[in-house]
Amino acid sequence: MSSSHSIEQALAGTQRHLLVRFMATLLLCLLLVELIVGAIFFYDLFQTEKKILTSMSTEYQRILTYDSSDRLIHVLEANPHRLVDNNIAAYWAQDNSSRPTFVAGDKNVVLNLPFADYQIDESRSWFDTFIVNPYMTLSIKGEQQQFWLVLDNRARDYIAYNQWLMTFYALIALVIVTTVFTRKIIQSAMSPLVTFGDLLDKLKKGQLEFAEPEPDSGQGLTVISSSVHSAVAKLQHVTTTLNTTVDAIAHDIRTPLSRITLASQSALLNNVDPQAMRDALADCAEHAMQASNMLTALMKLNDEVTGKRQPQNVDTQVSDVISKVVSWYDDVAEDKQIQLVSDVADGLIIQSDPDKLTQVLVNLVDNAIKYTEPGGCVTIKAEQSSNIKAKISIQDTGIGIDPKYQDLIFERLYRVDSSRSNIEGYGLGLSLALAMVENLEGQLMVKSECGVGSTFTILL
Q1: What positions does the domain Histidine kinase occupy (predicted)?
Q2: Which uninterrupted H or E stretch holds 280?
């Protein structure tokens, strides 16, 4: 089984696990909501039935008080539908000890009830009224007779039950819809991981053909997907750079090592000639120094990239730094018949690392002079830009750089093929300069045209 397939299976299992856990939690919450909603429905029905029973009791009590018991019995028997519609039965008793007699109303309400135990009062809760003892009674007392209104709540349960059932169906539909959308959301959320795993698998096998993703609108999960693609692109770039760097190191180190080998063999063969041995040792020392310098530059570049060389943050007089670099290269430029010009704004002081800035300018000025033909000009200009930054530019009238190489010249150990054979260097100067500028939280840009010259700009 391929690792890509294993990753897909693992992520699919994770998606199912997340969906099951989410739905279990949702169902538990919905069951709790259903219990609360059911309690609310029954409580509301209890209040309604209590209000109806109390209203009817008050009305009948008025008839019994201001008229007679016969009149009340007549009213009850003449209009029983009101009682039947509300599942209420009316009884009368001569006294508390006698057996109640049915008058009118719902005949399904049982007779053998201790009516006094079911009277509505503050001590009876809605739960007891509807679930434990599902009856409600109210007494209507006269001078000689006592009437009872009895309400059977069991006949009214269907009202609250139907309301609760409608809510339950609505919640079931909500669960189904939520499951569908949640599954899609989880799949969308996990898709960058699937892509990431697939890309890593291809990268490991060396089969990755990757193009930088187009910028998106930065909304929703596309941000995560874009970040995954960018991370893999950077990883691929690092891997490619590492391979290229190893090849370049092997290529550049082979030359001095070969010369050291030839010089040492020559010395061994001519061991009777002291001068030949001294020359051979001198060649060995020279080429060993070349290899050492390149490795030292690589280590310095690595320290800059990994942040091991933390920059200072002190007041830096830009004009002093540029003057120092110009003084070092005056003689070199004069020997090559190149005019070296500096144009620095007065009082330009920034918070930076003067040593790193000096190293950056040394690399850029050295390249400018190296690639400028005799009779040309190299100009160093420093000014304050509109956004409160120091802008330093190194402009030359040299051979220029083809546009297709302008993004590659900052790669370590990269040199344009046309310049490798006749220009000394390791291809690390611009890489080191870029790493130092970024370490100073600045920017290094290039603008060049073949046959016209190049301008390197530093923003700090």
Answers
A1: 248-460
A2: helix 274-306
Look at residue 133 and give its three-state secondary structure: coil
CB 291 within 8 A of CB 253: yes
- Say whether 228 sits in a helix, a strand or coil: helix
Bridge partner residues of 91 (DSSP) = 102, 148
Q: Which helix (H) or strand (E) holds 410?
A: none
Position 420 scores a pLDDT of 42
Nearest to 303 by CA among 439, 414, 411: 439
Half-sphere exposure of 149 (CA within 13 A, CB side): 27
Query: How does the average pLDDT of the chain come out, rounded?
Result: 78
pTM above 0.70, yes or no: no
pLDDT digits (tens, 9 = 90+) for 392-409: 999 999 888 888 877 777
- The DSSP code for 119 is B
Structure tokens that stand for 452 in this block: 């016209």
The answer to whether the beta carbons of residues 155 and 106 sit under 8 Å apart is yes
pLDDT grade, residue 153 (50/70/90)? confident
Identify whether the C-beta of residue 74 lies closer than 8 Å to the C-beta of residue 67.
Answer: no
Answer whether 357's CB lies under 8 Å from 440's CB: yes
Q: Residue 177: CB partners within 8 Å, gap ≥ 6?
A: none
- Whole-number pLDDT of residue 308: 66
Instruction: For residues 233 and 294, give the distance between their C-alpha atoms in angstroms, rounded to a whole number.
Output: 28
- Cβ atoms of 7 and 197 closer than 8 Å: yes
- Taking a C-beta distance cutoff of 8 angstroms, is the pair 136, 53 a contact? yes
**Which residue, among 371, 363, 378, has the nearest Cα to 428 in the 3D structure?**
363
- Euclidean distance between CA atoms 271 and 446, whole angstroms: 53
The mean-pLDDT minimum among 76-85, 127-136, 301-310 falls in 301-310
Q: Is the dihedral of CA 405, 444, 446, 359 positive or negative?
A: negative
Alpha-carbon separation of residue 399 from 268, 305, 350, 428, 449 (angstroms):
45, 29, 32, 19, 8
The Cα–Cα gap between 303 and 356 comes to: 13
> 156-187: per-residue pLDDT in tens?
777 777 777 888 888 888 888 888 888 887 77
Backbone φ and ψ of 139, nearest 5°: -95, 145
234 pLDDT band (50/70/90 cuts)? low
Phi, psi of 390 (to 5 degrees): -85, 125
CA dihedral 90, 93, 96, 99 (to 10 degrees): -90
Q: Which of 341, 322, 333 lies closest to 391, judged by CA?
A: 322
Q: What are the distances in angstroms from CA 6 to CA 3, 90, 191, 244?
A: 5, 76, 15, 31
Using CB atoms within 10 Å of the CB of residue 436, give its burial: 0 to 12 exposed, 13 to 18 middle, 19+ buried.
buried
